[in-house]
Amino acid sequence: MKIAVIGTGYVGLVSGVCFSEFGFNVICVDNDVSKIKELRSGKVPIYEPGLDKLIQKNSQAKRLIFSVDMKSSVADADIVFIAVGTPSKLDGSADLSCVYTAVDEISSCINKNAVLVIKSTVPVGTTTAIKKFLSDKGTDIDVAFNPEFLKEGAAIADFMHPDRVILGVQSKKAKKILSQVYRPLYVFNIPIVFTSPETAELSKYASNAFLAMKVTFINEIADLCESCGADVNDVALAMGLDKRIGDKFLQAGPGYGGSCFPKDTSALQNFAQKRGVNLSLVKETIKSNNNRLIRMVEKILLACDNNVKGKNISILGVTFKADTDDMRDSPSIGIINALLERGANIQIYDPSFSDQAKQIFSSLKFNDNAYDNCNEADVIIILTDWSEFRALNLQELNRRVKNPLLIDLRNIYTLPEASASGFNYYSVGRCFKKLKSIEEITTQ
């Protein structure tokens, strides 16, 4: 079986590489010539642990190739996956222009016996609309929908050992071919769920919206913990031990970001609103997460006696989560910009050495390690929970800083270990130190 994957972004590249690891012949197509040149030379444009080794392995085995030639790539493919971006429009709806551009481009050259599979996250009804779009052009082929559920930083494991595979199909032929594509997963007893395209499309949005609500919920509980003296880490542990709830996505912090949750909650809310359905929980999730940035900036200011002007601030971690270089909708962007507006001097260390971050914060200094980043710092702020931050020598950091103030927005440390190293320590949802209010500070 020959597989063509259109789009070498996060989803397309990981999917294509993993399909080749399954043993299929895969061609990954993109119109970005420079990106294809990089991939052919073995350079991976995204930070994803283990992806570079799989690309090298399967490229050498001749199962994986990269191309800019869309027409020849899909001409003899048995199955074509479209995995291009669907970013948010200004009104929050999903921008499907890249999807339809790709569909239009392959409409005249795709193998008439192939199955076209949409892997991009699209609103309900899009798969059926694409089939009609192709039919109107005289191309009558099967179209299916196969949502991805990949976590950045763990995408390969998620693809090779998923919780489930959702396949929205309209014909026996599409079901048969997609069954063959995911046959390697049968040995692991992975649930393969066949349903309608509409149900599959909504399952993707519903899943991401629910996880976003879970993140937002524990962040709001963290605020309550701070007001009453409870510990959000212990609350999350107690909740997570309930099998009906589970312990995933119950880590309090500065709010969700990334390529999925912000745009998918907005797209779902927009879609529901157009159909006259009130998704009040989703609406409040978006609002609460937006307000989370304000809350985190306020927490930092309060710990700094409402004055960061001229202070040297060491930022540890700026990507939206660990084990990725992705800066899309990262909470760090709003937090750092707010501190810069108030006159702070900021330097950054992020283990991914993200090019995206360096472009966004082009005027700021990036250091090669956490320790140098903290030299002469008045404040250290942990924004991303990279594993290496859990093993920092706090006593060494204390020797390097000007003022021992550690603001941990990921709850990596505890008060006893931070205090033992001489730091004044503030975290999220753990009322170890009672912060004064803005009013108390400004009236002193």
Describe, in plain words, how this protein is organized in 3D.
This protein is α/β, with parallel strands linked by helices. The protein folds into two domains: 2-195, Rossmann fold (3-Layer(aba) Sandwich), CATH 3.40.50; 203-444, 3-Layer(aba) Sandwich (Rossmann fold). The protein is 43% helix and 13% strand. The chain is built from 18 helices and 14 strands. The protein has helices at residues 10-22, 33-40, 51-60, 70-75, 97-106, 126-136, 155-160, 172-181, 197-228, 232-240, 261-274, 280-303, 331-341, 355-360, 370-373, 394-400, 415-420, 438-442; strands at 2-6, 25-29, 64-67, 79-82, 115-118, 142-145, 165-168, 192-195, 312-316, 345-349, 365-366, 379-382, 405-408, 424-426. The longest helix is centred in the middle third of the chain and has 32 residues, at 197-228. The relative contact order is 0.09.
